Amino acid sequence: MLKVAVTGCAGRMGREITDLVSRDEDMKIAGMVERKGHPLVGQDLIGPDMAGNPGPIITDNLREIIGGVDVVIDFTTPESSMEHYKIVAGAGKGIVIGTTGFSAEQLKTMENYRDKAACVRSPNMSIGVNVMFKLVSEAAKMLANYDMEITEIHHKLKKDAPSGTAMRLAEILARETSRDLSKVGVYGRRGMVGERKPGEIGVMSLRMSDVVGEHTVYFGGHGERLEITHRASSRMNFAAGAVLAAGWLAGKKKGMYDMQDVLGL
User: Fold this and answer.
1) Is the bond leading into 162 cis (omega within 30 degrees of zero)?
2) Bridge partners of residue 229, in order along the sequence
3) Partners of residue 248 on adjacent β-strands
4) What is the pLDDT of residues 19-77, one digit of tens each?
5) How many Å apart are CA 216 and CA 206, to the nearest integer?
């Protein structure tokens, strides 16, 4: 029985993940974490199990419960995820990180822990999106001379832009066409910007209503356009991927993995 802790347990993703883990015969909720001052800290969010045992009490300190946990699933904020990763590494446990919006410095800091904990980190845990990553990679190799643009749409409450998924897509395009994304990436256009420069990779962000997530990669050639699109209609697919990653991570060697590893892509 894999013992799982869920951080950000009262959030939209946290609740989805908690529900899936609770219904998985091979897993159990061994801990729940929320930010300091959250009104649910000190309460039991999921209630008793089938045997009548009470659910775990929500804490605001992962360090207090890490000893009784095998894997942590973390969808919080970059700052919180960094702290949780540090705690997990100190205990030699596993962690699945679905948080996005990390800075380059934070990503570099994560490398300090890769030999101390088994970690799956991905900007998108969706199985469909990770298949999209593979398809985009193959298309970029074959359409290297085409214009490449990305659009992403998310709900109006999302804080970071472009989305982590859009940035991963841009990184794939750059990698497969031997470009430096820091030099060719374009994030929005306005005014007399001139003609599109050869090799540009455009990434455009839209925010509206309650859109869960939509990403499209465009390959524009003379007289034709290829589009690869993924649309998420609920957060269940992200939660399912995260739970799948947690199960896959059990028993793995310490190191940094992503959903491509989990799915064998």
Assistant:
1) yes
2) 216
3) none
4) 999 999 999 999 999 999 999 999 988 887 767 778 899 999 999 999 999 999 999 99
5) 12
What letter represents residue 163's amino acid? S
Residue 80 CB partners (closer than 8 Å, separation 6+) = 7, 8, 35, 74, 99
Q: Which fold has domain 127-232?
A: Dihydrodipicolinate Reductase; domain 2 (3.30.360)
CA–CA distance, 139 with 137 (Å, rounded to integer):
6
pTM, entire model:
0.85
What percent of the chain has pLDDT above 90? 92
Which of 171, 174, 153 lies closest to 162 in space, CA to CA? Answer: 153
Main-chain dihedrals φ then ψ at residue 5, nearest 5 degrees: -110, 140
The CATH code that applies to domain 2-121+235-262 is 3.40.50.720
Query: Mind listing the pLDDT tens digit for each residue in 173-189?
Result: 999 999 999 999 999 99
Provide the annotated active-site residues.
154, 158
Across-strand partners of 204?
151
Q: Which residue shows structure tokens 């820091």?
A: 182
Q: What is the C-alpha to C-alpha distance for residues 137 and 260, in angstroms, rounded to an integer? A: 12
* Residue 79 · residue 97 · CB < 8 Å: no
Segments making up each domain of the chain, as ranges:
2-121+235-262, 127-232
CA 65/CA 203 separation, integer angstroms: 41
Determine the residue type at 262: V
β-partners of residue 3 are 28
- Distance from C-alpha of 127 to C-alpha of 167, rounded to nearest angstrom: 17
What Rg do the C-alpha atoms of the chain give, in angstroms?
A: 20
